[in-house]
Structure formats: C-alpha cells, structure tokens
C-alpha cells in the first residue's frame, strides 16, 4: 500500500526531541533505538515515568500537553485503548507520531487518525515491528524476487506466554489475542499476499487471568491466496516461538524460530539461565527489530526516506482484525 | 495420497521381507474355500484380492501382504496400469471379475484401491458376496455413497475398514495417549498439515469426476481421522480453497490449496492445511504434522519426520504404517470384528470433506448434524 507523501523534514536526528508516552513494557524496547540516534528524550506516563527517565536520561513531563509542547516526535507506547486520543492530540500539537500496534482499537478510529495525519501534514507510523524482524524481511524480499512464484497458501504461527497485565485479557481493551498478538501475522499475510476479501475467525478463550487462549484466522486474499494465522497465549513458561510457511506455485519458504538458533545451550547450560517463557520474543541474537523500526521511522521523519509500513497499512490491518472479531462474534465469514 | 514414499515399493520397504520361494500360493489348502458368507480364517492362509491399482497405495498394500507370508494375493489391474510385478504370494489378473473368482469360494477379504468414485460399487459388491473389505481413503466421494457402503457391510456382517495408515503411526498413538490421559491439560486448539506434491502418475487424482475433488478430498481425511479418534465429530466446518499451485497440471476444477477449520462443542478449534503445497523438486512426497495446544502445554507430532537426510536426500526409516494397517485389517478379518479406522470413521471423515466443499461453495461455515 502506498504511504502518504513525506511531510516536511525535521532535520538531523540528533537534534530531534522525542517524547515517549506510556513507559510500560514496550517502551523499553523502543528506548534503545532512540538512544542510539542520540535524540533528546522526553517521557510522560501515568506511572513509572521517573524510573524510565532515570534509566534512559529522559525529561519527565507532568501532563500530556506539556510533553507534546516540548517534542517533535511522539512515540505512543500506552495500552491500545488510549492510542486514538493521544495520536489526535499529538497531531493537533504539530508533532510527528510513532504509535505501537494496533494503531487504534477500531477501523473507524484508525481511519480517523490516518486522515488527521494527512490533513495535518505530519508523519504517522504504526510500529508493526515484525516487518523489521530480519526473517520476515528476508521472506518479503525473496517473495518479491520470485522465490515462491505466486503465493498460494500461507501459514503463520505466533506463540507466547499469556501477558501478565490485566488489560490484555480484557478483549474490549486489547482486542484480545487476535488484535494484540495475531495482528502481526495478519499484517504479514497482507504484506506478502495482498488485501483480503473475506475473514473467518475462531478462538478458544478461557475467562479470568492467566488463562490460555488460542485464535485461528483464515484470510482469503483478493489475489486468490489463502492464509491461516494461529496465535497462542500459552500457560506460564510457554516459550516464545514464531513460524511461517509461504507456499507458491514456484517454491516454498519456511521459517521456525525454534529451528535455526544462532546460539544453542544444552540442557545443563539452559537450566542455569532458565527464562520463564515470554510474552515478547527474544531478540538478543539479532539486531533489535525495534531499533530497526525506530531508525527507519526517524529517517523518514528527518529526511523523507521511505518506510516499509505506512499509517494506511496500520489502519488496514486493524480493519481486517475487526472483521475477525466480527467473525468471532457471529460465527460467520466476514467480507472485507 | 498420503504416503507416496519409499513404502510404496518393496525394495525400500523397512518391513519384514519374505525370502524368495518361502511362500507357495496354494488356494486349495484353505479348508473353508467353498463356504458362503464372511469367512474367518482361524488358522492358515488368507485369500486376499486387491481390486485395482488405480490408487498407488495398492503397491504398498501388496508388498505388506506378500511380506506376511500367510496371504494368497490376487491383484486386479482392470485399467491396465501394468506396474504390478507379481512376487511370491501374488498373481495378477486383468479384471475384478477374475479376482472375485480367483478362488472357488472367493476371497476372504478385498482391498479396494480404485479411483475414489469407484469405491462404492466395489464395496457394495464385497458386501453382497459376504467378503470383508478394506477401502482406500477417502471412503467415498459423497456422504450418500459412504452411508450406503457402511450400511451394506453392517447388514452383510462383513468387516469394513478405511485405509488410514497414519492412524498406526507411533507419534499419532503418543498424541492420542497424551490427550486421553490429560497430559496436555485441556486441548484448546490444533493445527494439522498434510501437504504433498500433486499426486503423480495418476491423472484421476485431480479429475473431479473420479476423485470427487482435489486437495480437500485427498488430504483432509487423514487428519480428520486422527482428530476424530480423539475428539469425535466437530460442530462446524469452514473451508477455503484455491487453485494456484499446479495450476497447469491439476485437473479442471480441482482445488490444489485448502484450509479447513473445525470447531468443537468444547470451544476447541482445529485447522487442517490440506494443500498440495510440497514443491515438485522436494526430496520427499510431503508429510503429516499435527500440533496440539493445551492448557498444560503443547505436543507437536510429525508422522514422517524419521529419515536420514542430506542435500536433496530423504531416506525414511521407522515402522511401516501400511504394514501395520494391513496387519490390523487381517486380524479383523480373522475375528470378524472391525477395528479402527472403521467404515463408520471413514464415513465421518467424508462428512467433513462434504461440509468443507459446501463451505467453499457458500463461503460460510457448515454446521454438522450429530448422529
């Protein structure tokens, strides 16, 4: 999908003033990228702002308005329900915006923030970090170079431990496993095989905290391909794992994060460094994809360079995710 | 086609081999050769006819039968494929009629490995003659045909089993045991893949008149059977399909890619990728995997993982599932009692395929009526 025309450039990255809004889990993935760029970092959060500021050398602001008045770029890392309001406020303040996925909770809200950014002539980038994972980037490049011919049947899997924070378990707040976790793979399927004409979804969702959830979504793409995305929020201790399988009429690409580790520990060694599974993937063996996306967004903001994901892409995958939620609700296949 | 691999030829079969000359086909040694109705060889030799080698699994079954050393085998090749080489214990005839009449009292059992659409008539003929029957999957191309076959065999008192060799894979058995014992907690979701190349050497596999359909028909049923053996019939079936893979070679109207999603009363959801998505130049025919996700952890099985590999190399080893199926069938013939996978199981998997086809037509999930 084409992204909007570059808006006026901000100049050198090191002179940028960047405000992190929401200093919970994901902000700690974003911070290293901003530090690497040497930006002037600011933050605002309902809680934890002081600790974040101390850790990364950021300036704390007491209100959102105060932060927005002090920065060139807002990096929205709050829980999803707050995204739309904050993005609108940032755009109104003339600030460029990086926003965690999903862009907003609803298709309408997403369209509204995209239109607002265009109207305001400001950059808006949804942080679809999986496009910046090197495995997925390599697959995208290979498919563009004809490695599989015409994509026909795609499968994506994402597995992790159920997130601890309560708001994730609240489907109204997070959009559930489909909107929060699987949206990455819905975005991948769309990135590789194009827009979709229908969506069918089913999930098993227990109620209460720490309950295991799994979702299945089947996409029919307008170009004819079909995709299956499977998400799992597993029991505590579930290791993060992601796989894909892209079969086309001239070849097939397969990847399994379990299958090609650059570093392997034997049972003795791994027992000594035992993690407790994860809600987020281990990216220690690669250049942080979070840093990659921050750098690419910043290059676009400072010099008009292209990005591999646009605000419209972020809005579109929200629309598809909402169709999946509609399918869950009705048991029907939903046209898009 | 599922296991179109080295098991298909005796040369590479890892099962027991029969020394040349150790078996002397001798129909006259069977004491009950002339008795009508279902026969149950208590001891001695089995008289078995394979009806057609249109499905290439016939070769694997023939090899397994011959390797046992207690089977007098007749193979009919009415279509004239001409590939079956008679070996000790086997002989070749050119029509089903000759196979039915190869022994004075007819065969004890037949294995139906014709094109899918022909299964029905041959199984009904077996029931009419009072002969036990193992029918290649899918049992039939329509639910009505499958029901007629199950009913006829039940009324005739003959064993009807459906040829799902992977049912006997140790990995599948381990999964069934883990699920039954609750080792994975409550199962919340499953993803199965049964991908293969476009079945080669036999155009009928994607000739919808003879096959009943493409990949949805060919590759949904193995996983449907495994799921059925653990969870019974699903509540809803949804499917999407396309025809991008092998577009130049697959028969007209035969889907080559498909995703079938099943839901169950427990809320569990399962998806089967039945696509013929194995690349033409892959070193093996394809495979079958199933991952079960539970509240107590995950189990992933790969029924055809066991192999010695290398660049472009694939040398399978491990149990011969075709031989295990044949052994189970002949045990059933001996006792007169069908064991899994039965004709009823085959019928339930045909219902799932039919629902998947209807879902592809309508674009919406199909609710299955419980028996």
Automatic annotation (TrEMBL), chain A:
> Gene3D superfamilies from the xrefs?
Dihydrodipicolinate Reductase, domain 2, NAD(P)-binding Rossmann-like Domain
Provide the alphabetized UniProt keywords.
NAD
Q: Where is the Gfo/Idh/MocA-like oxidoreductase N-terminal domain?
A: 16-126
* Record has Membrane as a keyword: no
Annotated GFO/IDH/MocA-like oxidoreductase domain residues:
136-253
Q: What's the protein name?
A: Gfo/Idh/MocA family oxidoreductase
Q: Which organism is it from?
A: Brachybacterium epidermidis
